[in-house]
Specification:
By secondary structure, the chain is an alpha/beta fold. The protein has one domain (26-238). It contains nine helices and four strands, in the order αβααβββαααααα. α3 crosses α5 and α6 runs antiparallel to α7 (161-176). It is globular and about 65 Å long. Mean pLDDT is 91; it is low at 1-18. The structure holds zinc ion.
Length: 240
């Protein structure tokens, strides 16, 4: 699966052996590992924002405190020239795009809200990485996208009121996102449906703190216990 992984490890061992170094190779790296690429000039301010807020580090720390991965997944912040953030199973890389922030700043107002939306994106991509790690049998792109959204909600709800605020900000940003004209080919649910699914879980998890969502979420599915229990069941082999 990972060409980078399989070529790097043996070559390091060979180099150590050739150098006559008696120390055994250290344990293979594992867990979510943040990295930054130099940004394109147009993305320099976005890159500074991500670094200053340490969003990849903070997400990786929370994920690693919760889960013990069998190998390393890089969380790579980089300029993507509009490709959009994503997870690449070949390289086991989450690519978090500096240039996504241009679009996010059109949807939300404050730096705090931008950070909230990017954190939700990070956890969504981590959800894809975990579908890959666990080889979960999602039948179809849409089902995996929905599961990745539910993983993002789970991570944020686990963080308590601050995470709940971030989830709510991300949901409201989806609600303000215009529908994609290529909607039929987009693997994600329409933005309004993604917003509704997040708000459903949020109200289900903390109804007292989000009492104003009662009417908008009445009868919604999957419910918070269903979503939480499904992911917790799937994550069982990795839970610390
Ligand atoms: Zn996705």
């Amino acid at each position: 699966m990972s060409r980078r992984w399989k070529t790097l490890v043996p070559s390091v061992s060979v180099l150590l052996a050739l150098a006559g170094c008696g120390a055994p190779p250290g344990p293979a790296p594992r867990g979510f590992a943040p990295r930054y690429e130099e940004p394109a000039a147009a993305d320099a301010a976005h890159a500074r924002f991500l670094r200053a807020r340490r969003l990849p580090e903070r997400a990786a720390d929370a994920l690693n405190a919760y889960l013990d991965l069998p190998y390393q997944v890089t969380v790579l912040a980089r300029s993507c020239a509009g490709e959009g953030s994503g997870y690449d199973p070949e390289t086991r890389r989450i690519e978090l795009c500096y240039d996504d922030l241009t679009q996010e700043r059109e949807l939300v107002t404050t730096d705090e809200e931008v950070a909230d939306v990017m954190t939700e994106t990070l956890y969504h991509e981590a959800g894809h990485a975990l579908v890959d790690v666990l080889d979960l049998p999602y039948g179809g792109d849409r089902a995996e996208e929905d599961a990745a959204d539910r993983f993002a909600a789970l991570m944020l709800i686990r963080e308590g009121p601050d995470g709940e605020r971030a989830l709510r900000t991300a949901a409201e940003a989806y609600a303000r996102t215009p529908p994609d004209p290529d909607d039929g080919r987009d693997e994600h649910a329409p933005p309004a449906a993604r917003a509704a699914a997040h708000l459903c879980l949020l109200h289900g998890a903390a109804p007292e703190r989000h009492a104003d969502l009662a009417d908008r979420t009445r009868g919604c599915t999957p419910t918070w216990p269903q979503a939480r229990d499904a992911w917790t069941h799937d994550l069982a082999p990795l839970l610390r």
